[in-house]
Amino acid sequence: MRVAHLTSADPDVVAHDLDRPYLEVAFAERGLELVSCAWEDPSVDWEGFDMIMVRSPWNYVEHEDEFRRFLRRFGASPRLHNPAAVIDWNLDKHYLDELAALGVPVIPTTYVHDGRDVTDALANNSDVDVVVKPTVSAGSRLTGRFAAGDRRAESLAHEILADGRAVMVQPYLDSVDTEAEYAVIVIDGEIAHRARKAQILEVGGTFVGGEYREVLTPTPVDHELDAAARRAAEACRDLVRARGWLSADAELLYARYDVARSAEGAVLLEAELFEPALFLPVAPASAALLAAAVDRRIASIPSS
Question: What strand order describes the sheet that includes 33-38?
Answer without folding.
Answer: 33-38, 2-7, 51-54, 80-81
